[in-house]
């Protein structure tokens, strides 16, 4: 019983993370409002971070912290993806901030958020 | 030794954090401090390059943990050569943009020089690092500086061009993270040399998946077709010196990353052919698009993309002469294209739409700038005795040695196309009648110095190419020698 | 038409990626042979107790083993604040110009005055104890910035001095880079970002050498930068608002 449930968990966790990435990518490519495009990029980055952290999980593992009275026989999950995702989240935040400031500037100039009306350069 | 490779990153970062504090005390310091930092980095780079030519690669460990547990920086003949080139061009761009537009106030100027310094630092970091996640972080540093610098001018469509760049850059980061994930989950390490030594243990389907993701992600940054939609807009909307920095510095870093992955880390059999085909398509499409351009900077941008395609074709040939030719073309491009951007910026300074047709007859009004532009144009299409000739010649020799006759024919056809659109511009500058309302902007003294130095460099390499042959041969050898790279990193003791 | 093409492309890409990851499997140790591959995480888990005496492995990885990445990340934050200022630059900058759609209700104003010190205290606790429990500089800095956001949303005339934020940011960054450079001089192996202070005892507040110092600097920096970002964006006065 344990193994079949774990199989579904396999598909569910990775599948939902990939689904989040695809939703974000779809929004970034298809939507016409600038704000929705920026939201799509942000969702896409969140999905990638989720996928990365999920990659580090080990069955029955616990957090990699050696507090007083930890059990030495307990398996610990992989700490490296967590550290990398920490960096990736902050970088994603920086890029989203710059994107939103560009949206503000475009709004100042054109007073609209729809790329159909802004298209001066060939998209 | 003047210093160690980590100072290439640490000193500019320290200066970047200190610039706001200095700016509160003395306003001119925000323009001067980046220049001082870049000068010191150039001295350091030349010093270290001479050291590794004699003594072998320098591997610097950080935080006291030997690779693969810590991050390490690798300064060997190949990366050292690229670093010196990038820092030199960074210094030229700084010198040129000192008081480029007279109406830029203190606040934007402070941010401009800081972002420029970080653009150069990030590219140097991409080349020096020996760890794939660290490379991702430096790509993001270059990306954010690029987005901000593209949107620097408020008047034109710069915010839109920057937004397009940002979107493509974000997608590139996501794909890069996916590729890093796949490699880490199989091999448990993030160090390039370690991955290279364990690559044979990885399942082929994972190798192919991550290689494709890497190529697409780095290809967006390196402007290969069809992922280069953002590049012409970004180059033409950015300030002139920034366009020079993009084409001379940033693109080189991305191409380096692509090549490092293909040559050293992955051992897939079809990877060289893939690079060759990608380069060929990019070259043809970019050069054909360049003919139809009306704005000067867009034409230069497409020409730059085409040259990078040529470099990828040369790398894709896979022999040592191919690598030598690719490095030679990269060296030429890094010097000539910024010169074209620099002179071109002054020639179209007063025109509203920056079109080529506005340049009619400007040769009489601004003779020095126009002559240098013509020099750059002659050099880049490969006319002897200028620098570009030797690069293209070594490429044709390498292709002939590998019996790739079709490629030679294609390159010659493309060269003819290049000659057409460059000579069109030169013709207009010198031999057309000028309209009476034409104005020419007089370059500042430091801009004169920069353009002269680059022009002299072109003439020097053209008439006396042996001066750079030594460095290029060492660089080509060091790229080709995969086992030496792995060995020198993994046995690095902490010095 | 374009939507159909995009959905098709995404379906292909999504199928390929999920296929790869399903093969990797969830929750198993993926490394084929631990002896041959020798993943780095085993060394990290081992050394963080033996050499560094830091309880939180993620902290020791972020600050010490891969400290160079953290330096780059801090730079990315710094650059994004600079980029924000550069992109949104206006010639005439009035101080105190804020676009407010409607003022906050009395619950919000009273509650945020009570909550603000508690939030700041929580954030400070999180980043000081980064090496002992889950948390650290980035997390603590974000919590503090949330407190400032609450105050800025509740009170229209609450202002934070831009100069102070810039000074805190720069000094924290200089501390980080400076501690790294001190590793050259004082470290026993003479490398950048080395841990040169004594390690202390595991699970003590003063353990881990320079790691808490760096993380505290990072906490200040992140708090100052995020507050600066929020403040810059909030001061965007629209032409139609009164």
Unreliably modeled segments of chain C = none
Indicate the proportion of strand residues of chain A: under 5%
**If you consult CATH, what is the topology of chain A?**
Helix Hairpins
Radius of gyration of chain C: 23 Å
Q: What is the 3D form of chain C? A: globular
Overall mean pLDDT of chain A: 84
If you compute it from the alpha carbons, what radius of gyration of chain A comes out, rounded to the nearest whole angstrom?
20 Å
E-strand count of chain A: 0
Order of helices and strands of chain C: HHHHHHHHH
Q: How many domain modules of chain A?
A: 1
CATH architecture classification of chain A:
Orthogonal Bundle
Main sheet characteristics of chain C: none
Total number of beta strands of chain C: 0
Determine the structural class of chain A based on helices, strands and strand pairing: mainly alpha
Instruction: Return the average pLDDT of chain C rounded to an integer.
Output: 81
What is the straight-line distance between the termini of chain A? 53 Å
Helical fraction of chain C equals 55-70%
Structural class of chain C: mainly alpha
Number of contiguous helices of chain A = 4
Short description:
The complex is a heterotrimer of chains A (123), B (495) and C (242). By secondary structure, chain A is mainly alpha-helical. Chain A has a single domain (2-59, 74-118), classed as Helix Hairpins, CATH 1.10.287.
Describe this protein with a few key phrases.
heterotrimer; A: mainly alpha; 4 helices; C: 242 residues; mainly alpha; 9 helices; 65% helix; globular
How is this structure best described in words?
The complex is a heterotrimer of chains A (123), B (495) and C (242). Chain A has four helices and no strands. Chain A is an all-alpha fold and 123 residues long. Chain A has a single domain, classed as Helix Hairpins (Orthogonal Bundle), CATH 1.10.287.3510. The relative contact order of chain A is 0.13. Chain B has 20 helices and two strands. Chain B is an all-alpha fold and 495 residues long. Chain B folds into two domains: 1-221 and 239-268, no CATH class; 272-480, no CATH class. Chain B has a two-stranded antiparallel ribbon. The model of chain B has no long low-confidence stretch (mean pLDDT 85). In chain B, helix 6 packs across helix 9 (231-237) and helix 15 runs parallel beside helix 18 (445-463). With 242 residues, chain C is mainly alpha-helical. Chain C has one domain. Chain C has nine helices and no strands. The two termini of chain C are 43 Å apart. The model of chain C has no long low-confidence stretch (mean pLDDT 81). At the A-B interface, helix 1, helix 2 and helix 3 of A face helix 5 and helix 6 of B.
């Amino acid at each position: 019983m344990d193994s079949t449930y774990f199989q579904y968990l396999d598909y569910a966790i990775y599948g939902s993370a990939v689904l989040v990435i695809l939703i974000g990518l779809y929004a970034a490519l298809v939507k016409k409002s600038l704000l929705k495009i920026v939201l799509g990029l942000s969702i896409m980055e969140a999905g990638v971070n989720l996928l990365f952290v999920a990659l580090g999980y080990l069955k029955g593992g616990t957090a990699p912290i050696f507090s007083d009275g930890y059990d030495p026989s307990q398996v610990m999950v992989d700490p490296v993806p967590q550290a990398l995702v920490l960096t990736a989240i902050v970088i994603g935040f920086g890029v989203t901030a710059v994107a939103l400031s560009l949206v503000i500037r475009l709004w100042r100039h054109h007073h609209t958020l729809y790329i159909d009306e802004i298209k001066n350069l060939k998209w | 030794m003047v210093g160690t490779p980590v100072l290439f990153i640490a000193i500019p970062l320290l200066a970047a954090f200190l610039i706001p504090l200095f700016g509160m005390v003395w306003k001119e310091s925000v323009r001067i401090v980046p220049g001082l930092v870049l000068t010191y980095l150039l001295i350091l780079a030349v010093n270290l390059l001479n050291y590794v030519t004699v003594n072998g690669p320098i591997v610097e460990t950080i935080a006291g943990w030997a690779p693969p547990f810590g991050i390490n920086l690798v300064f060997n003949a190949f990366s050292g050569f690229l670093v010196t080139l990038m820092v030199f061009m960074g210094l030229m761009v700084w010198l040129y943009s000192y008081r480029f537009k007279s109406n830029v106030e203190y606040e934007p100027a402070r941010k401009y020089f800081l972002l420029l310094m970080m653009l150069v630092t990030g590219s140097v970091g991409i080349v020096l690092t020996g760890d794939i996640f660290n490379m991702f972080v430096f790509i993001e540093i270059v990306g954010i500086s690029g987005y901000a610098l593209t949107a620097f001018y408020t008047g034109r469509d710069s915010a839109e061009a920057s937004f397009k760049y940002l979107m493509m850059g974000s997608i590139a980061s996501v794909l890069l993270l996916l590729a890093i994930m796949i490699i880490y989950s199989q091999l448990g390490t993030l160090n390039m040399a370690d991955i290279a030594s364990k690559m044979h243990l990885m399942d082929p389907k994972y190798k192919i998946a991550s290689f494709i993701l890497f190529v697409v992600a780095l290809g967006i940054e390196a402007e290969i077709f069809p992922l280069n939609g953002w590049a012409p807009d970004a180059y033409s909307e950015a300030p002139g010196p920034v366009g020079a920095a993009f084409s001379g510095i940033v693109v080189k870093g991305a191409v380096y990353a692509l090549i490092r992955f293909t040559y050293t880390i992955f051992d897939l059999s079809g990877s060289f052919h893939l690079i060759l085909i990608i380069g060929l398509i990019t070259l043809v499409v970019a050069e054909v698009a360049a003919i139809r351009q009306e704005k000067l900077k867009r034409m230069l941008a497409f020409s730059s993309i085409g040259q990078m395609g040529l470099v990828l074709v040369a790398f894709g040939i896979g022999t040592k002469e191919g690598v030598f030719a690719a490095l030679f073309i990269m060296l030429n491009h890094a010097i000539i294209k910024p010169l074209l951007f620099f002179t071109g910026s002054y020639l179209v300074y007063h025109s509203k739409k920056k079109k080529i047709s506005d340049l009619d007859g400007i040769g009489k009004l601004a003779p020095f700038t126009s002559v240098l532009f013509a020099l750059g144009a002659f050099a880049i299409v490969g006319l002897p005795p200028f620098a570009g000739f030797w690069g293209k010649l070594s490429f044709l020799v390498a292709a002939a040695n590998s019996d790739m006759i079709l490629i030679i024919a294609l390159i010659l056809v493309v060269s003819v196309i290049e000659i057409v659109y460059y000579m069109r511009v030169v013709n207009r500058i010198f031999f057309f009648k000028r309209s009476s309302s034409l104005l020419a902007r007089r370059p500042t003294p430091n801009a004169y110095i920069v353009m002269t130095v680059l022009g002299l460099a072109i003439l020097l390499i053209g008439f006396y190419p042996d001066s750079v042959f030594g460095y290029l041969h060492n660089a080509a050898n060091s790229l080709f020698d995969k086992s030496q790279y792995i060995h020198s990193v993994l046995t690095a003791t902490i010095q | 038409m374009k939507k159909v093409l995009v959905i098709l492309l995404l379906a292909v890409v999504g199928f390929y990626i999920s296929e790869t990851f399903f093969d990797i499997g969830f929750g198993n140790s993926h490394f084929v042979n631990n002896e041959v591959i020798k993943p780095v995480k085993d060394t990290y888990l081992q050394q963080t107790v033996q050499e560094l005496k830091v309880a939180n492995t993620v902290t020791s990885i972020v600050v010490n083993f891969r400290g160079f990445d953290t330096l780059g990340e801090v730079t990315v934050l710094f650059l994004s604040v600079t980029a924000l200022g550069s992109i949104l630059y206006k010639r005439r900058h009035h101080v105190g110009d804020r676009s407010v759609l409607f003022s906050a209700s009395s619950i919000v104003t009273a509650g945020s005055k009570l909550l603000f010190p508690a939030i700041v205290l929580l954030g400070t606790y999180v980043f000081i104890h980064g090496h002992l429990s889950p948390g650290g500089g980035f997390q603590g800095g974000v919590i503090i910035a949330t407190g400032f956001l609450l105050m800025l949303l509740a009170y229209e005339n609450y202002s934070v001095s831009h100069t102070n934020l810039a000074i805190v940011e720069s000094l924290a960054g200089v501390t980080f880079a400076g501690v790294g450079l001190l590793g050259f001089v004082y470290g026993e192996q003479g490398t950048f970002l080395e841990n040169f202070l004594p390690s202390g005892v595991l699970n003590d507040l003063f353990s881990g050498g320079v790691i808490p110092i760096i993380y505290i600097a990072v906490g200040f920096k992140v708090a100052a930068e995020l507050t600066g970002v929020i403040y810059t964006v909030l001061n965007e006065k629209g032409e139609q608002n009164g």
